[in-house]
Amino acid sequence: MTAPPIRATYTLLDHHGTPVTERTYRGRWQLVQFGFTSCKVVCPRALGKLSKALDAVEPALLVPLYISVDPERDTPAVMKAFLEATYPWFTGLTGTPEQIDDAKRAFKIFTRHRDTPDGYDVQHTALTYLLDPDGRPAHHWPDHHPAETITRDLHRLLTT
């Protein structure tokens, strides 16, 4: 799979409340997943699969990022509690609705709010992106790719 045609830019807050951009992580590969902490099925499945892949690669080469598509609920504190409890490889990124919209446009992520009995859900594009150490798009995986494929691709890409 080739590099996706995206801009790969963002200006957000990490789950410690520190401002970050794609330049913050220059020199390291960035594994970027969009989702939200209230997701019941797709996001936990994706984070679990990516965590399995991350267990098999050299963690110093890579920074896994989870960008919220639900800034109204996903504050830095919510992101931190969610990720540290179950997906500790990941750094959560969130921001204002405008900042999240900018990041979604840059990565070509589609979202739609859908009312549910519990409030609302956020349907969104389910892709994982890999940015090279210069912050350029290098690869992407659709949601249906298994952890083994992602692991194999990461080994190949991170060692070339």
Architecture overview:
The structure is a single chain. By secondary structure, the chain is α+β, with helices and mostly antiparallel strands. It has one domain (11-125): Glutaredoxin. The chain is 30% helix and 30% strand. It contains 4 helices and 9 strands, in the order βββαβαβαββββα. The protein has helices at 42-55, 76-86, 97-107, 147-158, and strands at residues 11-14, 19-21, 29-35, 62-68, 91-94, 111-116, 119-124, 127-131, 137-142. The strands form 2 sheets. Strands 2-1-5-4-3-8-9 form a 7-stranded mixed beta sheet. β4 (62-68), α2 (76-86) and β5 (91-94) form a beta-alpha-beta unit. The longest helix is centred in the N-terminal third of the chain and has 14 residues, at 42-55. It is globular. The model has no long low-confidence stretch (mean pLDDT 93).
List keywords for this structure.
160 residues; Glutaredoxin; seven-stranded mixed beta sheet; two-stranded antiparallel ribbon; 4 helices; 9 strands; 30% helix; 30% strand
Looking at CATH, which topology would you report? Answer: Glutaredoxin
- Overall pLDDT metric: 93
The residue fraction in helices comes out at: 25-40%
What is the CATH-assigned architecture?
A: 3-Layer(aba) Sandwich
Per DSSP, the total helix count is: 4
CATH-wise, what's the superfamily?
Glutaredoxin
Estimated share of beta-strand residues = 25-35%
Q: Quick one: overall form?
A: globular
**Biggest sheet overview:** 7 strands, mixed
- How many structural units, i.e. domains? 1
Radius of gyration: 15 Å
